[in-house]
Amino acid sequence: MEEFFKQGDKETALGIPNSPLCNRQETLIPESQVGFIDFIILPSMNLLGDMFDALLQVQNEEAASGGGNPGEFRKVTRPWDKPLSENRKRWKALVKPSGSCAECLVARDRGRFCVHSPTSPTF
After folding, report:
1. With CB atoms 3.0 to 4.6 Å apart as the test, which of 23, 34, 70, 111 could cross-link to 18 if both were Cys?
2. Which strand (E) or helix (H) includes residue 90?
3. pLDDT digits over 49-105, tens only?
4. For residues 47 and 41, what is the distance between their CA atoms, to the nearest angstrom?
């Protein structure tokens, strides 16, 4: 987050509006981390896993056509799933439970989203 905040500090010094998540006084860090995981990290890692699956499927099909043993076929285990889920849960636990808190209302008024709900953004 510090990189974002430094950018916001420079924007403030230049007298221009802060980019999203760059205002150190207004950014809700737990909420931004949950959003980053939900909208950037999870889709990226799922895509990466799907790419590995597709590549390994071709490799396994080639091995099978060459008389390979199915027990030797490779599979993607997606080792990032558990740590990513645990990280998200830790950040989610820091998110305030009520969608009507002052921060949520400020976020909504600024066109941002709130992650206080148990599902995806509500605003």
Report:
1. 23
2. helix 81-94
3. 999 888 888 887 877 787 766 666 677 788 999 999 999 999 999 987 655 566 666
4. 10
Rounded to an integer, what is the distance from CA 82 to the centroid of its chain?
14
The end-to-end CA distance of the chain, in Å, is 23
Tokens for 62?
A: 């080639």
Question: What is the pTM for the complete model shown?
Answer: 0.66
Instruction: For CA atoms 87, 29, 104, 40, give the dihedral sign.
Output: negative
Asked if 121 and 115 touch (Cβ cutoff 8 Å), the reply is: yes
What are the b/e assignments for 21-30, b being 16+ CB within 10 Å? bbbbeebbeb
DSSP annotation of 37 reads I
For the record, the structure tokens of 53 come out as 């699956």
Who's near 75: CB < 8 A, 6+ residues apart?
56
Helix (H) or strand (E) holding 58: helix 42-65
